[in-house]
Amino acid sequence: MRKFSSRYGRLGTETAFAVGADAAAWAAKGNSVYPFHLGDMNIITPDHILEAAFKAAKDGKTGYAPGPGILPLRELLAENIGQDRNLSLTAENISVQPGGKPVIGKFLGALLEEGAEALYPNPGYPIYESQIEYLGGKALPYGYTPTATGFEINKDEIEAQITDKTSILIYNNYQNPIGAESSEAEMQWLADLAIKHDLWVLSDEAYFEVRYSGKSKSIASLPGMAERTVILYTFSKKFAMTGWRLGCAAGPKAVIEAISKFNTNQESCSNHFVQEAGIACLTGPQGPQAVILDTLKARRDVLVDALLNIDGVKVSRPETTFYLFPDVTEVFKRNGYTDPSQFRLDALHKTGVSFCSRKHFGRPLAGEDRVFIRFAYSGIDLESIQEGIAGLKDFWE
Fold it and tell me: Where residue 13 falls among pLDDT bands split at 50, 70, 90?
C-alpha cells in the first residue's frame, strides 16, 4: 500500500484538543473535571441570532451561496471592521469564511512560496506553525519576554531571523495563549519592520472585541499597512458562536480575490443561513455582547485572584482575551517535577483541573527556563473556577 504524502507528514494539529481528550477520558470514569484547557464557550449564542438563523433556514436559505459570501454580509462587515479599525473598506475587501481559522491557510496558500520564510508568534496558536510547514515554508518562531504587567515581543529574536527569503509576518495582538497586548510603540515597531522588509502581514484579530477596558487597535490602521495586511475576523468569540463557524478575511482586493478562489476549491461557500445570522449579529441589539464581556470579566477576576492565592504562582491580569498564562516555575520545582506533561496530568488526576502546558502552543524555544501553563476561562462558570482552583491550591501547596 502506498504511503501518505510527505506534505501530510508536515501537518500539525491544535494540540489543546489532545488535552481535551485526556479530560474527557478522566470524566468518563466518573471523575469531576474543571475544563480550563480549551477556548470554547459555555455561553449560549444570543436569542436574536438564533432566531435569525432559524428564520433564514425556514425561508429556504439552505442552498449554495456566493463563494466570497453574500453581499449584504460583506457590506456590513466592511462597514463594521472599517469603523472599528479606522479603515476604508468595501465588500470587495471581504471574503466570508467558515470560521476564522481557514483564513490562516488560505492567506499562506496565496502568498507563501515554497521555501520562503514566515515569522510567527511562539508561544502562539499552533495552526500558524502547522500551515507554514505543510505548505512548504520555513517557520521562524518569535517569542515573548515576561514583564511586570504581561509580555512583550522579543524584538531581537525577530530581527535576528529575517533574511531575503522572509516574506510573511503573522501577528496576533490580543494573543492566544498569553493574553498579550502590544503597546502603541511595539505595534508601530512591527509595522516599520514589515514595511522595511516588504512583508505581507496576517493580523489575527480573533480577540479584538474581547477586552474589558481600553480600546483595541489594528496594525492595519497604521500608515503603509493597509495594503500589505489581511485581517482575520471571527464571530466566534465576539458573539459566542464558536460552533457556528463564521468569520472573514479583510484586506487588499487582490489578496481577498485569491482567498475567495480557495473558497471555491475547498468548501464552495460558507453556510447561507449562518451568514444571515451574521447579519443579525451586526445589525441587531448589542446588549448581549456586553453581557458576554461582563461574564468573562467576572470569571477573569475570580480566576486571577484564586491563582495569586497559590504560593509560587505568578500571573498578570490581561485586559483582553479569555486566557491566563501563569508562571508556575516555583510550584513545578517545589513539587519535584521535571516533566511538564506529568505535571499537567497529575493536576488532572488529583484535582480534576485540566489546563494546557506551554508545549501545546508551539515548540519551546532555545533558552526558555520558566514553566508556564494556560488557563482558558470561557467555558467554565464562577463556582467551578473557585472549586477547581481551591483543589489545585491544596494539591500544589
Answer: confident
Assess whether pLDDT exceeds 80 at residue 92: yes
- In order, the DSSP letters of 328-369 are -HHHHHHTT---HHHHHHHHHHHH-EE-EETTBTBPPPTT--
Q: How many residues does the chain have?
A: 397
Q: Which residues pair with 120 in a beta bridge?
A: 141
* Helices assigned H by DSSP within the chain: 6-9, 16-28, 47-58, 71-85, 102-111, 126-134, 155-161, 184-196, 253-266, 272-283, 287-308, 329-334, 340-351, 382-396
Contact between residue 19 and residue 360 where contact means Cβ atoms under 8 Å apart: yes
Which grid coordinates belong to 326? Answer: 501563569
The CA distance from 300 to 320, in Å, is: 10
- Name the packing angle between helices 71-85 and 272-283 (round to 10°): 40
pLDDT at 298: 97
CA–CA separation, 281 and 235 (whole Å): 8
Residue with cell 480566576: 303
Place of cell 479606522: 86
- Global confidence as pTM: 0.95
- Greatest Cα pair distance, the chain, in angstroms, is 62
Phi and psi based region of residue 256 (left: phi greater than 0; alpha: psi -120 to 50; beta: remaining) = alpha
Domains of the chain are: 6-44+288-396 (3.90.1150.10), 47-283 (3.40.640.10)
What is the C-alpha to C-alpha distance for residues 115 and 122, in angstroms, rounded to an integer?
Answer: 20
Sorted by sequence, the CB contacts under 8 Å of residue 361 that are 6+ apart come out as: 15, 122, 123, 124, 125, 126, 176, 177, 374
Q: What is the chain's alpha carbon radius of gyration, rounded to the nearest angstrom?
A: 21
pLDDT surpassing 90 at residue 5: no
Mean pLDDT of the residues in the chain: 95
